[in-house]
Amino acid sequence: MVSNSHIIELISKINPDVFRLLNKDIFTDLGGRLGSVQGAVKNILSPQYEQMLKTLMPTVLTMSPNDPNWYKKVANYWNSFGLKIPIGGIHLEIGFNFNINDTSRKEAISELIDIASKNKISIKTDDELKDYVLKNINEFEKFKYATPINVEQYLTWIFCLGHREVAKQAEHINKSTKIHLLLIDPKDIEDTRRSQHTLSVEATRKYLEIIADRSKVIDILYVKGENASKLDDLDADAKLKMFADNNPKEFLTIANSSTLITKARIERYCVKGILRRLPNTSIIVDANDSGVVVGNTLDEAVAYFSSEAADRVAKVKEFKTRYSQLIKN
To answer: Does the residue 133 lie in any domain?
Structure first.
């Protein structure tokens, strides 16, 4: 048997204030509480998780799924579920133990081995089973081929995923006033940190490559939404550097776009009043005739400018002429 540990943290959204900490003998519950709510119970009792519960909960309830009281006991368990969350939160182990000779999963593992062999993948050891399941099997199907290291903690995590009071991602923590708990995956945080570092390095390299090309610097700033016509070289470089540092992903997307020049051209026309966006929308129209829609988005406007249709070619030429006349004056 081999194990693959995966720890998730469940923490309270708000840390206890100083007064409560100083008076912890009076305020005994300084953390939070994960309780039973209708939506979470309904979710975990849904058909989606029926097989999972039948496979995993017998060890929790010490009862067979064939028992006539099975469904009642399972429902009672989740309807009365309660878990105190102490200061600093708790760890939930949601990893798995892998045993290729697990007799309780023999049929499922055999079928998986057959599927893998058809793709010329050999599964003969616990490690090979682990690698294949982790890479190819949906998170909520893994229980068919492996045993959770901690069944109760794994099921608690599943329960949290359908719980209205638990944010599944940090950016959702303020999505609702009902949310008071947060799931944190340290692995995701580390992966994100590494990804951000890689993006930052790539963005810096791209910036250093671009600053020698003044037209490209200006084009990127226009597409970002800057009126670059008012910037000298120093200001333009500073804004571009700030953009690359603060939002490397968007910077690289714009800088590497194959339609950058056309996008910048369209944004120039918008700045000069040849084109305009309808209020509170991304729709780009002819500033002289809002009935002429160039595109519902910038990408659609690019397609308009690239079209070989005679009417569109004529209109794009008209835009160019109007723009040329404006910048001469």
So the answer is: no
Please check whether residues 156 and 235 belong to one and the same domain. Answer: no
Taking the chain, what is the end-to-end CA distance rounded to the nearest angstrom? 79
CA distance 111 to 109: 5
| Residues 167 and 265 grouped into a single domain | no
Tell me, yes or no, whether 169 and 250 share the same domain: no
pLDDT value for 24: 47
* Distance in angstroms (rounded) separating the CA atoms of residues 223 and 214: 15
Mark whether 175 and 51 lie in a shared domain: yes
CB contact burial 97-129 (16+ within 10 A = b; e otherwise) = bbbbebeebeebbeebbeebeeeeeebeebebb
* Secondary structure (3-state) at 54: helix
Q: Is the dihedral of CA 109, 112, 118, 123 positive or negative?
A: negative
- Quick one: residue 256, left, alpha or beta (phi over 0 = left, psi -120 to 50 = alpha)? alpha
Q: Are strands 90-93 and 2-4 parallel, antiparallel or unpaired?
A: unpaired
CB atoms within 10 A of CB 130: 22
pTM: 0.60
Q: How many residues does the chain have?
A: 329
How many domains are there within the chain?
A: 2
Q: Which of 210, 198, 194 is nearest to 249 (CA)?
A: 198
Residue 287 sits in the same domain as residue 168: no
Task: Collapse the DSSP code of 166 into the 3-class scheme (helix H, G, I; strand E, B; otherwise coil) and give the result.
Answer: strand
The tokens 């998986």 sit on which residue? 112
* 176, 49: one domain: yes
Out of 145-149, 186-190, 210-214, the most confident range is: 145-149
**Strand pairing class (96-98; 181-184):** unpaired
Q: Using CA of residue 260, residue 266, residue 267, residue 269, what is the dihedral sign?
A: positive
What is the structure's pLDDT at 89? 87
The whole domain housing 208 covers 192-328
Rounded CA Rg of the chain: 29
